[in-house]
Design goal:
Elements lengths: L1 H46 L21 E8 L2 E8 L18 H45 L1
Antiparallel strand pairs: 1-2
Length: 150
């Protein structure tokens, strides 16, 4: 019975650490999105409001293309995890070209910040999966503890 209680304590402590890690990751996502948005706004100011706008984004009638970054599911230690990788397909498009050939450094910076944000999102999803697994372990331990009491 003591061993089960010790395992429950360790699992709960692990859960708290994972929750803290997830909150830190979510703050990184928020900070990155804010920073990237500021760089987009600076680019729009430099190039003019029509040069960096929704009108430049592809529409349904645009040619097909693949995302330059994709998310793969891998298995590490019997756990599924998301991993962000560069897409090597031939029809990938550099989104900066939608706004012209000579774009300001702020637009390049915004692109790299948003690409980094994708890594934070994948990390946050991985932490969420670990949290769910940890909760399932706690439920199993609680059920086991109840069977020991009876």
């Amino acid at each position: 019975m003591n061993r089960v209680c010790d395992l429950l304590d360790k699992t709960l402590i692990n859960q708290l650490h994972l929750m803290e890690e997830k909150m830190r990751c979510e703050l990184n996502i928020e900070s990155s999105i804010n920073s990237g948005s500021i760089h987009l706004a600076k680019s729009r100011y430099i190039m003019g409001q029509n040069a960096v706008s929704i009108a430049r984004l592809p529409v349904e009638s645009s040619p097909e293309f693949s995302a330059s970054t994709v998310c793969e599911i891998t298995e590490v230690d019997n756990m599924k995890q998301f991993r962000v990788v560069e897409n090597d397909a031939e029809n990938t498009v550099n989104p900066l070209h939608w706004f012209g050939v000579l774009v300001p450094q702020n637009l390049h910076k915004a692109k790299s910040i948003f690409q980094n944000t994708i890594n934070f999102v994948a990390e946050c999803a991985n932490i969420q999966m670990r949290l769910l697994e940890n909760m399932a372990n706690m439920d199993m331990l609680n059920e086991y503890k109840k069977t020991l009491k009876s």
